Amino acid sequence: KRSAKTVSLKEFHAFIHALRYYIELAEIFETLDNKQEDDQRLSLRECRKGLADLEVWGVTEEKLADKFRGVDPWTPLIAFQDFAEWCVEERWSVMHLSMDLDSSDEEAQFADAGAALRGVAGIDKEDKKYGQECLSNIKKVTEIFKRADADRSGVISEDELVAVFCGLNSKITPEAARKLFVLADANKDGQVDYEEFCLWLFR
C-alpha cells in the first residue's frame, strides 16, 4: 500500500517528461531573450529569431502574428510562464488522436498515433517522404525517442509509452496507450526499440 507521500512509476515518468519540456522551453526562452535588454520578456522581433525552434512546438509565423497583434515588434510582451504555457498548448493542439476504445480498427488507431508522434517531433508530410534515413529526421526521431526513454535504457517500456501518451493528451486512457504499445512492439519482446519506433513513425 502506497503512502500519501509516494508516487507511482507512471506518475514519476510523467513528471520527468514535464521537467524535460520545461528545461527545453527555458533554454529556448533564454536564447531568444535579448541579453542586452535583460527584461525577461519576449518581443515579436525576438521570437522571429527563433522561429525554427518554435515551429517544433507548433508556433508558426501566423500564430506569432496573432499573439502579438497590435503590439510593436520591439515591445517586450511575453514572460516565461506565459511563453511556456503557450508553446505547450500549441504543440499538443496539433495532435488529433482519436482513440475509440470500442473500435476494432486498431491499425487506424496505430497510424493516427504515429502521425501524432511525427507532429510532436516536428516531422511534416514533406519530411516523411525522405524516410528515417534522412539526417534531419534521424535527429528529430532520436530526440523524441530519448524523451520517451525516461530511464535511458535504450528501449521504451510499456509504462514509458503509456506515460508519454497520457501526458500528451488527457483523453487517452492507459488502456488505449497499452494497445499502441502492443502494436509497436513488433518482435513481441516486451519493449519498443529504436528500429521499431522508426517503423511506427514512417510506416
Automatic annotation (TrEMBL):
SUPFAM superfamilies, A to Z: EF-hand
Domain named EF-hand: residues: 136-171, 172-203
Keyword annotations of the record: Calcium, Repeat
Gene3D superfamilies associated with the record: EF-hand
InterPro entries from the UniProt entry: Centrin_CML-like, EF-hand-dom_pair, EF_Hand_1_Ca_BS, EF_hand_dom
Any GO molecular function: calcium ion binding
Pfam families: EF-hand_7
Highest taxon of the lineage: Eukaryota
Protein name: EF-hand domain-containing protein
